[in-house]
Amino acid sequence: MIKTYLALCPYLSSCSNIRNTRGSMKYYSTIVVVLITLCFVTSSSLYAAPANIGLRVNAMFHKIKVVRFTLLNDSNSPMELKVGDDIVRLEAGKSVNVKLPVGARVLLNSETQLHHPGDTVAEVSGYLDGAIVHLK
User: Fold this and answer.
1) Nearest Cα to 97, choosing from 111, 112, 81, 109?
2) Which residues of the chain have pLDDT under 70?
3) Which of 121, 76, 125, 77 is nearest to 101 (CA)?
4) How many other CB atoms are there within 10 angstroms of residue 3's CB atom?
5) Selection from 55, 82, 57 nearest residue 71 by Cα
6) pTM, entire model
7) Order of strands, sheet of 120-123, starting from the edge strand that comes earlier in the sequence
8) What would the pLDDT profile of 104-122 be if each residue is shown by its tens digit?
9) For residue 71, what are the contacts with CB-CB under 8 A and spacing of at least 6?
10) What region, left, alpha or beta, does residue 93 occupy, with left being phi > 0 and alpha being psi -120 to 50 degrees?
11) End-to-end CA distance of the chain, in Å?
């Protein structure tokens, strides 16, 4: 009965096997410690920097959309408008074709019956492409 027990448990049969398992346990425990340390280091470094760095570089080469539309003066008096960086005088009943980037503003530069200088007439968006903006 004892021989079968020793045959089933080979590590208990001699002292050399016990020493061998202790050496391999030290080896396995060092591997586990190294793996756990790597997991902690890599998980914190993953959150240290954004993953989409390429989007900022791509923004430099992005083409700005330009919108073309028409400003029409429907009032009885002439208007002076600040279109982007330019100042445009718009006579009564006349129209001006405008080409501006999205996000630019058209401001009133002179006082009229209904508006004060500095009032925003229009803010350019993609919806204004090909439109006619009537000013009163």
Assistant:
1) 81
2) 1-24, 43-62
3) 125
4) 8
5) 82
6) 0.53
7) 86-90, 79-83, 105-108, 120-123
8) 888 888 888 888 888 888 8
9) 81, 83, 88, 90, 95, 96, 98, 106, 121, 122, 133, 135
10) left
11) 110
